[in-house]
From TrEMBL:
Alphabetical list of PANTHER family matching this protein: ABC TRANSPORTER PERMEASE PROTEIN, INNER MEMBRANE ABC TRANSPORTER PERMEASE PROTEIN YCJO
Gene (UniProt): lacF
Membrane topology qualifier: Multi-pass membrane protein
Keywords from the named record: Cell membrane, Membrane, Transmembrane, Transmembrane helix, Transport
Zinc-finger among keywords: no
Protein name per Swiss-Prot or TrEMBL: Lactose transport system permease protein LacF
Length: 294
């Protein structure tokens, strides 16, 4: 007996989508809407009901000098960590894909920072940066230089955190680049060699354009990481000195859970979401047009 063809039923499709839609609504859209509403209220003290203050939180945000300093820090942090992480990850992927001796150990050494817990990574680097007896200070003392308080100076604290973030993220991004490089047909490399192209020319003209979809994916993740960085700050600097290394998400934590000003914390959260939204529009609306998918 012939089987009857399945009848298209939109109800079945919606039932299959329902679990995913429910999770997205519960953990993405509802918190976003609730945060937007909370930004118009002043948190009640001592269990009192929140007070509606309209745009007062936004007016205070424009006058908040700490916010502008933290925002500048985060923009500097993002402008340094994103290109450095991507460039370092791509370079490491090229090295471990080149068939060098000890390739397995090289690949392992690049990937080890990725599997370490964030707090463990921060504690390792805290030992490097510790004044007088830290690893960096021992090297400087051996070379005859005077000591530097790396995490206690406003001029160096943020860049120390940037170094930790790049060291942590580059190995993770390398895995995606390595997978993309291994998908490139070997015949393209052989053709480039026959034509007399150097290895640098092959990477610039062939390999890098072909892995652009991976670069877009890594760029999105690197941007998100740059604006959600908070773990390392708890161990390394706690935003100091004088908010010189504080980032936007850490400032949101301080306002919301140290000072219990949840209304202003919600306002800051919306600013963070705005920056991530603008970054997404730029990446997918502009950069994706230059990405060629195979």
């Amino acid at each position: 007996m012939a089987l009857r063809p399945a009848v298209n039923n939109p109800i079945n499709a919606w039932l299959l989508l329902l679990p995913a839609v429910a999770l997205i609504m519960a953990f993405t859209h509802y918190p976003a809407v609730n945060t937007f509403i909370s930004s118009f209220f002043l948190a009640g003290k001592g269990g009192a009901a929140p007070e509606f203050v309209g745009l007062e939180n936004y007016r205070f945000l424009l006058e908040d000098k700490i916010f502008w300093k933290v925002l500048k820090n985060n923009l500097v942090f993002a402008s340094c960590t994103i290109p450095l992480s991507i460039a370092l990850a791509m370079t490491m992927a090229f090295l471990v894909n080149a068939g060098l001796p000890g390739q397995a150990w090289l690949r392992l050494s690049y990937f080890v920072p990725t599997v370490l817990p964030m707090i463990a990574v921060a504690n390792i680097w805290l030992f490097f940066y510790t004044p007088e007896y830290g690893l960096l200070e021992q090297v400087r003392r051996f070379l005859g230089f005077s000591g530097v308080n790396w995490l206690g100076s406003e001029s160096t604290a943020l860049y120390c955190v940037i170094a930790v973030a790049v060291w942590k993220d580059a190995g993770f991004f390398m895995i995606f680049y390595l997978a993309a490089l291994q998908q490139i047909p070997p015949s393209l490399g052989e053709a480039a060699m026959v034509e007399g192209a150097s290895r640098f020319t092959y990477y610039r003209r062939v390999a890098i354009p072909l892995i652009m979809p991976t670069t877009l994916f890594v760029l999105v993740n690197a941007t998100i990481n740059a604006f959600r960085m908070v773990d390392h700050l708890f161990v390394l600097t706690q935003g100091g000195p004088n908010n010189a290394s504080s980032l936007l998400l850490y400032y949101i934590y301080e306002v919301s859970f140290k000072f219990w000003d949840t209304g202003y914390g919600a306002t800051l959260t919306l600013v963070l979401l705005l920056f991530l939204g603008l970054a997404s529009i730029l990446q997918f609306g502009v950069l994706e047009k230059k990405v060629h998918y195979r």
